[in-house]
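Lecture 7, part B: from sequences to assemblies.

Below are the input chains for today's worked example.
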Amino acid sequence: MSTSRHSEQELPRWRRAVLKVGSSLLAANGGGLSTRHALGLAEFIASSHRAGREVVLVSSGAVAAGRALVRAQPEAAHGLAARQALAAIGQTTVVALWQRFFDRPVAQVLLTHDDLRNRRRYLNARATLRELLSLGALPVVNENDTVAVDELKLGDNDNLAAIVAALVDADLLLIATDIDGLYSANPRSDPAAQAIDDVAAVTPQVLAMAGGAGSSVGTGGMLTKLEAATKAATAGIGTVLFNGTDAQAMRLLAADRLRGTRFRAGETRLHARKYWLRHAPLAGGRIRVDAGAARALQSGGASLLPGGIVGVSGEFARGDMVEIETMLNEQASSIARGISQYAAGEVRRIAGRKSAEIEGLLGYSYGETVVHRDDLVATAGANP
Ligand SMILES: Nc1ncnc2c1ncn2[C@@H]1O[C@H](COP(=O)(O)OP(=O)(O)O)[C@@H](O)[C@H]1O
Ligand SMILES: N[C@@H](CCC(=O)OP(=O)(O)O)C(=O)O
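Predicted structure of the full complex, as structure tokens:
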């Protein structure tokens, strides 16, 4: 293929990133997993760790690894159940492959769409991933292929990586693949394809550039990478696409330089988060606060503490989105919404009390705020 090259540019600043590594990099066509390209990627992760950065790895390769391990009757292993069995066989080698490069613990995290759609499971997955990072572990995420049938499936790891990036509040999504970046057409079939360095937004024209997978082991091709960049952008997270087979591109990355394609986020992360908070579905419950707490919440910057709470109606669980209201001219009026750190029954018990009393009243504490300011958005008079 004779194509133009991507030029070198600055890598967006980041402190926590999700790095997605495709099957095309880990398994040569038909072969088992190979360390050939994984080594350069692992060196990049290690140098990021040394710089005090955090990385969540989303690694494909289970099906390709399983296929190579089974070998016999490759043509029989194409149905859904067979793919699921191959993923189960191959997944242990995916994790083992990464563990061999690191002294720090490597943690296997398998997720399905259902885990991420259900608010409570989403929060649990988020808490576990944050805990893994604070323990200094390298989380290695893959789709839980053994249980993920059609309606539970995310379908591809590019999209999974974008969702994980939002889940862990990453600053950047890094997608390593077997091609230098985005081209105006699939360069494997169009030698005149032009390198695209910078994408301000994934428009229909950009989507039209995408072709299918380049290897027999890759799944989504460029389209799923563009979908992932769009998802990440909605969460206020930028994406970069680069060639994981190019040792020089990897070294550049460790020096905060990119040769590949940069997709911009458009929105700031804070703005994206506030948008989500404003539009996420509400649980049935409401927390009523006194005038002082209402003023503090509406002027912004304050968390909701138990002391300002005067009542609770309805039921909700820890992690649910609740409406916060106050009495105005003898009428209950909604002023904000946010994620409650305590279930309705717990809030009833700590309402009106000091934060320091929570542990004594409940026998445990999830922290001194009922709704943390990062999880709270004022609604009264706010534009959607
Ligand atoms: N417009 C395009 N620009 C670059 N690559 C493209 C484009 N359209 C299709 N592709 C193909 O996408 C492939 C990468 O996707 P895929 O094979 O699914 O890899 P992975 O396993 O890394 O997810 C490239 O090898 C290339 O053949
Ligand atoms: N969960 C599958 C990967 C599916 C997938 O998206 O693969 P790829 O397009 O190579 O990133 C596996 O581990 O084989």
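Note for the exam: The mean pLDDT is 89. Keep this in mind when comparing with the next example.
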